[in-house]
Fold this sequence. Notes:
Bound molecules: cytidine-5'-monophosphate
Helix content: 25-40%
Structural class: alpha/beta
Oligomer: single chain
Largest sheet: 7 strands, mixed
Strand content: 25-35%
Amino acid sequence: MSVVALIPAAGRGTRMGGERPKQFLPLAGSPMLAKTLGVFQRAAAVDEIVVMVPPGEEAYCREAIVDRYGFSKVRTVLAGGATRQASVAAGLSVLGREVSIVVIHDGARPFVSDDLIGRVIEAARTTGAAIAALPIVDTLKQVHEGRAVTVEREGLWAAQTPQAFRREVICAAVERALADGFGGTDDAALVERLGLPVVLVEGHPANFKITRIGDLEMAEEMAALRDRAAGAPSGAIN
Ligand code: C5P
């Protein structure tokens, strides 16, 4: 019974505005996706990794990231789909029955920790579905016709990844979503629709998703600081 990490990294990164997808952009000298994969490579709780990249980028990812950095746990690099959900579905379709737990993590969250991955997997083993999340600390506003209205934040959490599931749970959830034409913004939303419980594990603010240009600048500084703290030369995987 094994634990497989699915890393959706098949976005085109249009909000970032660059020519290359954001997950391939360098962070303190090495591609963002290499930073993310490095954490899963070192995570004791993870046996194998499957990566989904934009169609046509499979060979680049294999050569310039997986082989170059020696990520021996990466079993498959495959083409993702038009949406994140379709990319996750593509990853699930190559998993066999020997897989007990699937842990899904955005390629664009390179500052995830081994500890958080382990805690989410452990919670999923006992409950079936567990996700990293953070309580909302900012006051939330909803804008109607140009006017802001405060939304009660009590009990609200912001979902992150990793999100881990028993394989049968996430496969059933993705199949049902496909049959119903439902699109969710995370994987857990599909499980919630089945009426199954999803438990939250406290995430970390450093585990943010690199989405806009400002995020990339912050990530660059964080990556450089971490490399320096680890005594590694620029470009080393943290
Ligand atoms: O677009 P967003 O920032 O929400 O993407 C989150 C993660 O999902 C990123 O790592 C991105 O590469 C991935 N993704 C994907 N397939 C898509 C769209 C996004 O694997 N079609």
